[in-house]
Amino acid sequence: MDERFEKLEPIRVSALDEILGEPFKVLDDGFIRVIDYMGNDSSIVQAARVSYGKGTKKMREDRGLIRYLLRHHHTTPFEMCEIKLHLRIPMDAWRQWIRHRTANVNEYSTRYSIAIDAAMKTLPGEWRMQAKVNRQGSEGFLEEELGREMTEDELKLHAFARDIYNKRIESGVAREQARKDLPLSTYTEAYWKIDLHNLLHFLRLRMEKNAQLEIRKYAEIIGREIVKRWVPVVWEAFEEYSIGSTQFSSKEIELLKFIYSGEKEKVNELAASLGWLKEKEGNLSANIERMEFEQKLDELGISYPW
Ligand SMILES: Cc1cc2nc3c(=O)[nH]c(=O)nc-3n(C[C@H](O)[C@H](O)[C@H](O)COP(=O)(O)OP(=O)(O)OC[C@H]3O[C@@H](n4cnc5c(N)ncnc54)[C@H](O)[C@@H]3O)c2cc1C
User: Fold this and answer.
1) What is the pLDDT of residues 123-132, one digit of tens each?
2) Which residue lies with its CA nearest to atom 50 of ligand 1?
3) Residue 202 Cα, ligand 1 centroid: separation in angstroms?
4) 3-state DSSP call for residue 58?
5) pTM reported for the whole predicted model
C-alpha cells in the first residue's frame, strides 16, 4: 500500500452503539431512535485538517479546534458527520419538523398503508393557555375542571374521526382520500437523515423556549440523549456557545454600557428612541424587543433601568 495512505478503521462510537435502535419515548405514543450514523468528533477534526489519520493529535488540541470551528461558524467540517433517526410524531409537530429542508426524509405513506391508529392525547392538566405577548406561544394552563372537559371532547373527536376513516376504508374509498379528515394529532413515522451542521441548526431552533413544546421534547432528546453521546466534544461546545449563550444587538450593547456607567438619562433616551417606553394606561405597553432585552438582563441579574 502507498505509504502516504495509512490503513483506516471504521469509525464507531461505543456510547452511541449502546443505544442503537433503542427507542426514547416522547409524548404519549411517540419515540425517536438512532438507526445509523457516520463519523464522530474526530471526523470533524480530520476534515478540518484534511490529513487522514493525523487528525487525531492530542485530544486537547482536537477539542480546541472543534470549539474554535463552532465558535467561528466554520461549518463544513460538521457536515462530515451524519445521523439517521427513526421517529414517531404527531402530524402537527411533524409539519414544523419537515420545514427543515436540509435533511433526507422518508415518511410513512397513508396512501399505501392504513393510517397509524394513534393520536396524541392531552391530559386534563396539560391544556396550555394562549400567551398574551408572544402570539405564537403558550403560557400557563387551563384550570383542571375545564381541562377535563377538553380532554373528554378530544377523546370523542378522535374516536369519531377514526370511525369515519374506518368506514370509508371498509366501503372501498381510496386510502389517499379516506385520510383527509383525520386530526393533526394522528401519529406519523419517518426516517430522517441529516448532517451534524444542519442538525445543530435544527436543535438551536427547536430546543429554544419559543419553539412549540411538543417538537421541543423531541429536540431535547436528540440533543441531550443522542448528540451528547455521539459527539460529546461538539455537544459541550454547542451547549456553551449556542443554546446556553445570549446575543446582544449593537443598541443593546450601547444600553448596557449606559447601565454600567449609571447614565440613567441616556438609557431612557436611547430606549425611548427605540420606541420601547411607550405607555398605555400608565404602564409600559408590551414591546417584544424590550421584553427580550429584559429577559437577558434577568439572566445577568441586572434590574431594569425603566
Ligand atoms: C419558533 C419558530 C416559529 C416559526 N414560525 C413559523 C411561521 O409562523 N410560519 C412559517 O411558515 N414558518 C415558521 N417557522 C419555520 C421557519 O421559518 C423555518 O422554515 C424553519 O425553522 C426551518 O429553518 P431553516 O429554513 O433555517 O432550516 P433548513 O430548511 O434546514 O435550512 C437550513 C439553512 O439552509 C439554507 N437553505 C435551505 N434551503 C434553502 C433555500 N431553498 N433557499 C435558501 N436557503 C436555503 C438556509 O440558510 C437555512 O437557514 C418557525 C420556526 C420556529 C423555530
Assistant:
1) 999 999 998 8
2) 96
3) 9
4) coil
5) 0.93
